[in-house]
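Internal ticket #5521
Category: modeling
Description: The requester needs a full-assembly model to guide mutagenesis choices. All entity lines are attached below as received. Residue total reported by intake: 127.
Assigned to: D.W.
Attached entities:
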Amino acid sequence: MDKLPEHLTPIIRVPARPADANPGGSIFGGWIMSYVDIAGSEPAYLRARGPVVTRAVDSFEFKKPVFIGDVISCYADIVKEGKTSVTVKVEVFAERASRGEVTVIKVTEAQLVYVAIDENRKPKPLP
Ligand SMILES: CC(C)(COP(=O)(O)OP(=O)(O)OC[C@H]1O[C@@H](n2cnc3c(N)ncnc32)[C@H](O)[C@@H]1OP(=O)(O)O)[C@@H](O)C(=O)NCCC(=O)NCCS
């Protein structure tokens, strides 16, 4: 069984609902991707002390499926800083309740690059 990261606070916790599932019964990748992008932008926004945009998705792995009823938690941490960019690693864990037990499963891992922008939407050096 996987463990939730103890040194980080989840940025997003959300249950997967029937409307988020595909006909095969697991959850749409795009549903998870949108939460990953939102979660990753939070540390980038705080580091930039202002608006950031997603510039690139360096990697994105769906390691295990997510099912209806799972509660996903997105953890995000800065792994690299450039002049205007912040690279963030996002990990997603599912908590799955069954027969009186809750199992933790690492379902997704991604790395995204955010760029700080100014009022003209041009790259802006990190403070
Ligand atoms: C973000 C944006 C303003 C950057 O403009 P740009 O002309 O590409 O700027 P630059 O080439 O100077 O790159 C800015 C930074 O991004 C980094 N970068 C550019 N392309 C990259 C890539 N493919 N992968 C990783 N980092 C990249 C650069 O290394 C640079 O980082 P640094 O300043 O820390 O060294 C512009 O690309 C943009 O508006 N993109 C659309 C963003 C958006 O709408 N996102 C939402 C999803 S649709």
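Resolution: model delivered.
Comment from assignee: The radius of gyration is 16 Å.
Ticket closed.
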